């Protein structure tokens, strides 16, 4: 049992990252026992007159090789200590290649890359990406990503990641490859990877600018008949955000994947949301009205993060309440409008009021006791030891 506590992080200690990350390329050779990750980072020093060391985060990784502009680094040219990899590039612009291994089947934290039900999933918020590869794991370091996934086709027939698919091909020995590109700069906590055998329900819609966009819900095959409501909710969420706030889906597709093992209700990874299956699947013979409304609210919430949280994100984790509080407000407004849809003036106002009463009841039952007890804290604490404990009713 661990008895140590993490080092306290103070919001007053924030310093900008000394390097600009221009591009990220990730290559995965996926396997539940041992996944090899080749990470190529294109970096530029912000102040070439005072070059700071390059510091990358990593947890439970096996480093296989490290190269700077194509030249392999020897062990005395970098240091690994306290879950950090440090080196001195000594160049204004450079490309760093890191080859490492992680072990999804042995990963019981449900953070980083892990196995569940014979499938592979990721969860990177808040600091899970450092379990996938060495990286500047902080929300103010953003870049576009190109991701290449390779795996055994029989075991993992679907290979999904953020953004848009730009290539697929067959490989020798029953393997295959998928290439994904996310053109929008994002922090690494929004990275996602899913590999496995899934059923898919999908629908093509037209956005307000006239583009065609594909919306997809992935689930286990034995749950395929329980995803219709989730897809309906996703369609309504996309249309509502266009109409209410003028915010259009900025990708060619948007995917939601139901996972049986997931440490949050859901996660807003850019274009590839991963959900606890409880917030995706609805059986008309057993689900209550409350369950249907909960699915609608969570689908909406994670989709609305596409802009409030993803395209516009946090500088550091002390700003967590900005993206979460604003997006909770947006999903509450969405649910209220859905309750009022099709009703006349007084009836619509009444429906919206009922939703507001429910929201206030949740606030009184969850946040009020927290705020009145020993766990009381401001929405922007001065410090934290474990960011995972930051996801509270107050925040």
Task: Write the topology of this structure.
Blueprint: E1 9-10, E2 19-29, E3 35-45, E4 54-57, E5 62-68, E6 71-72, E7 78-81, E8 84-87, E9 93-102, E10 112-116, E11 119-123, E12 143-152, E13 158-161, E14 164-171, E15 175-186, E16 193-196, E17 199-206, E18 212-219, H1 228-245, E19 253-259, E20 266-267, E21 272-276, H2 289-304, H3 320-340, H4 345-372, E22 383-384
Parallel strand pairs: 2-12, 18-19, 19-21
Antiparallel strand pairs: 1-22, 2-3, 3-9, 4-8, 5-6, 5-9, 7-8, 10-11, 12-15, 13-16, 14-15, 17-18, 20-21
Percent of residues in helices comes to: 10-25%
Number of strands: 22
Mean pLDDT across the residues is 96
How much of the polypeptide forms β-strand, as a percent range? Answer: 25-35%
Approximate shape: globular
Radius of gyration: 22 Å
Unreliable stretches? none
Distance N to C terminus: 29 Å
Number of helices: 4
Spatial sequence of strands, sheet with the most strands: 6-5-9-3-2-12-15-14
């Amino acid at each position: 049992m661990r008895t140590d506590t993490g080092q306290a992080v103070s919001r007053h200690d924030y310093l900008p990252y000394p390097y600009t990350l221009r591009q990220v390329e990730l290559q995965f050779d996926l396997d539940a026992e041992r996944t090899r990750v080749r990470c190529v980072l294109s970096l530029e020093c912000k102040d070439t007159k005072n070059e700071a060391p390059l510091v990358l985060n990593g947890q439970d990784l096996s480093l296989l090789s490290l190269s700077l502009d194509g030249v392999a680094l020897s062990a005395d040219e970098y240091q690994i200590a306290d879950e950090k990899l440090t080196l001195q590039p000594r160049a204004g612009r450079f490309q760093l290649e890191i080859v490492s291994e992680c072990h999804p089947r042995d990963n019981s934290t449900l953070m980083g890359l892990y196995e569940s039900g014979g499938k592979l999933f990721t969860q990177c918020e808040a600091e899970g990406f450092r379990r996938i590869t060495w990286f500047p794991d902080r929300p103010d370091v953003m870049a576009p990503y190109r991701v290449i996934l390779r795996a055994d086709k029989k075991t993992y027939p679907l290979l999904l990641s953020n953004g848009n698919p730009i290539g697929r091909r067959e490989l020798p020995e029953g393997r295959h490859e998928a290439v994904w590109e996310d053109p929008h700069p994002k922090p690494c906590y929004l990275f996602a990877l899913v590999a496995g055998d899934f059923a898919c329900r999908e629908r093509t819609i037209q956005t307000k600018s006239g583009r065609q966009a594909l919306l997809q819900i992935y689930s286990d095959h034995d749950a395929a008949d329980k995803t219709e409501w989730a897809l309906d909710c996703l369609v309504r969420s996309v249309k509502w955000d266009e109409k209410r706030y003028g915010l259009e889906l900025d990708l060619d597709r948007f995917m939601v994947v139901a996972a049986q093992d997931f440490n949050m209700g859901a996660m807003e990874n850019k274009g590839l949301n991963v959900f606890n299956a409880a917030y995706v699947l609805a059986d008309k013979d057993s689900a209550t009205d409350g369950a249907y409304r909960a699915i609608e609210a969570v689908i909406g919430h994670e989709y609305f993060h596409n802009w409030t949280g993803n395209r516009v994100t946090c500088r550091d984790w002390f700003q967590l309440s900005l993206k979460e509080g604003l997006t909770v407000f947006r999903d509450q407004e969405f649910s209220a409008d859905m309750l009022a849809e099709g009703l006349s003036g007084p009836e619509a106002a009444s429906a919206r009021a009922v939703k507001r009463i429910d929201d206030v009841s949740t606030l009184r039952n969850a946040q009020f006791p927290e705020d009145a007890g020993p766990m009381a804290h401001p929405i922007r604490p001065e410090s934290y030891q474990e960011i995972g404990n930051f996801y509270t009713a107050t925040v």
